[in-house]
Design a protein that fits this description.
two-stranded antiparallel sheet; alpha+beta; two-stranded antiparallel ribbon
Length: about 160
């Protein structure tokens, strides 16, 4: 509010949860809503080893279970549909990765921009689920969606 840019670290599971956490620990919602520009949530996930990953075809039952767990309504927006030709990669384990099947990490990020709607919700101390829904409507890509997007790109290479 004074024109200074502040970076802070908060341990939460998602960007919208950061809002509710800061309000819970006593931050004034009105001041916070005015000052907030952006929240970035980051999660590091293991990356499949390039030396030993191999093609894998999920059967329909496995695919449906996965889709249900992560949100069936989101799959069409990601361009993911079950076909007999759907190939993903799986870890195997090799000498170069110490038989783990993984080598390195990849960052998954959520960017929550403060919009006028988000600002009003912060002032009203809305629940995290409602904040998440609005942030997604405003263009936030969730970390779960990032998992599938990055997985599809990795499969293509």
């Amino acid at each position: 509010m004074t024109g200074h840019l502040l970076f802070s670290n908060q341990h939460t599971n998602s960007a919208p949860e950061t809002i509710t956490r800061l309000i819970y620990i006593g931050m004034n919602p009105l001041n916070f809503a005015d000052a907030l520009l952006l929240i970035i949530a980051q999660r590091l996930v293991r990356t499949l080893c390039k030396e030993c990953k191999e093609d894998y075809h999920r059967d329909r039952e496995e695919f449906d279970k996965l889709a249900k767990e992560y949100g069936e309504e989101k799959f069409p927006n990601l361009g993911i549909a079950y076909t007999d030709d759907l190939i993903i990669k799986k870890s195997v384990g090799f000498v170069t990765c110490s038989e783990t099947g993984y080598a390195g990490r990849t960052g998954l990020h959520e960017l929550l921009h403060r919009t006028d709607d988000i600002k009003r919700m912060i002032i009203k101390k809305e629940l995290v689920e409602i904040l998440r829904e609005q942030a997604i409507k405003d263009g936030m890509t969730t970390q779960i969606r990032m998992v599938f997007t990055k997985s599809l790109r990795a499969t293509a290479t």
